Amino acid sequence: MPTRDDAYRLMTEHVKNLNLQRHMLAVEAAMRFYARKYGQDEELWGITGLLHDCDYEEYPDLQQHTRVLAGWLREAGYDERIIYAILAHNDLNAETHPRTDLLSKALYACDEITGLITATALVRPNKSILGLEVSSVKKKMKTKGFAAGVNRDDIIRGAAELGVELDEHIANVITAMSSIAEELGLAGTGSSNGAAANA
To answer: Whole-model pTM above 0.90?
Structure first.
């Protein structure tokens, strides 16, 4: 099976938008956290997160999104479990790829929440995820118009499908994302990545 380095190369080949790259890195970190929590294959789970939106920049139409990517991944020899979970995170594939396995449930649960956490961190005075509180994320979640592109229903459904309380899920994903704060541009204005965080 292709390695994480192979997956990263594939991702950067197809995704040029820095924010989308960071989103996929954030989901990778969250997936690795949950793989460790559930005693699963951390590399397989991480690669699933890293690649889950790899075709979105070129194929944003939800009728094509994930289906095009599935073809790329099969051609490159990726594990069918990765391909299934990626297809399952697009609700348009629900009939053919229901989220019945833990990997698929985790990917769906980790997807939208990373966007809300990122947006919440970036409106803090220090623009950092470090020390971000669950209550701050929940408050922003209830604020209409804040991070309007983030689907709140998907966040709630994702945590429920995974069987994790929403507060715990938010805390877990904050912890996971904090471990790669520099890469995500969320280490704060006092860091070497401060300029990126201000962008």
So the answer is: yes
